[in-house]
Amino acid sequence: MTGAAPQKRAGARDSATDFLTVLFREPLDPGYARAARRQADAVPRPRWRVRSARGIRLLVLVLIGFLLMTAYQHAVAATPGTTKAHERLVSDVKARRAQTDELQQQADRLREDVVRARDEALADSDEARRLHDLAAAIGLAGVHGDGIVVRLADGPAQPDPVTGQAAASNPGRVLDRDLQDIANALWHGGAEAIAINGQRLTATSTIRAAGAVILVDFAPVTGPYQVSAIGPDDLDKTFGDSATARRFRSYVDVYRMQFSVRKQEGMTLPAAAEPQLRYARPPGASPEPSASAVLSPSGGTT
Amino acid sequence: MIAGVALILGVVLGFVLEPTVPVGLQPYLPIAVVAALDAVFGGIRARLDGIFDDKQFVVSFVSNVLVAGLIVYLGDQLGVGGQLSTGVVVVLGVRIFGNVAGIRRHMFRA
Predict the structure, then answer these.
(1) Which of B19, B38, B72, B60 is nearest to A69 (CA)?
(2) Domain A143-269 sits in which CATH superfamily?
(3) Between chains, do B18 and A35 touch, taking CB under 8 Å as contact?
(4) Which of A26, A57, A62 has its CB closest to that of B13?
(5) Between residues A291 and A96, which one has the greater pLDDT?
């Protein structure tokens, strides 16, 4: 057979040459050239063999396409497992937040309905007016009036003296304590209604820190903080002369915190969220909640 | 022409059937794909060179996939599966590149 000799020689050369060199110089499978040579030398193959070879080739091509698609689908399904989980969580959070907003709006609407129904029922009596005033005082109704706005913002992060980069802890950062002090000083100065970034404070409001975020009644507020207070005409003077304001002015000098007080006319402060009612029970009595239980109107915070 | 139709038919089949890959075979899927691509580009190159051979094509595909899978399997058993996969991908990748360069020379004369 004539094809055997060159085939043998080619094999010897392959093993003799550096594998990588061959790989780079002749990427095509040498079998193709060999087969072509063999075919040229040999007699033509019978037709059925050609046919069946072509059929197998097509079958293999179908198989390759199938393999490619399978691998693609597998990659799409498997690789971004963590990404998908993350995306699902994000969309979950967004959906829940939207749901919360919707429920909050619904609650606000229903509360307005209740107030309107109550006003109709009480029909312009002195009681109704008194109720209105009380609701405004404890923060369950929106109020409108003149007052002051205290603006408070974080000081710039001071560079670390050693590394020159921004220090991890910034003493000029506004803390929950600062907002508490300002709110208390404003109450002390005679403020009738206070809101932080539009979040109305009531007698039971909380100003807390969770990590680096300040929560007012469990809702996060971000800087710059605007503490709006409606109160007597001399509120700006009273507050400006208070020990708290003096302390913050010194913070401005020392930590470059931003602090300003200005008068503002015609402010509207929204109603606070409905407070959670706590029922008082006489000790030892039946655990049945009394129907006339009301929120204890325990004055303002001091 | 018919080859392209067959390839697309396979893709459509894969899309329609949505086969689930057994967990044990999943690590070999990417390697099998690279081996199949090597066979395909080798076949195209040979066709353009005028030396295409059905038997050679079928054998190169089957052996490529089997040998690549075997190497990775052995590597997995020896604890060097990742490195051996890289080796297989490098070798097959170099061949794919070379063959694509050959195809390019045929098509654009450059």
Answers:
(1) B19
(2) Protein of unknown function DUF881 (3.30.70.1880)
(3) no
(4) A62
(5) A96
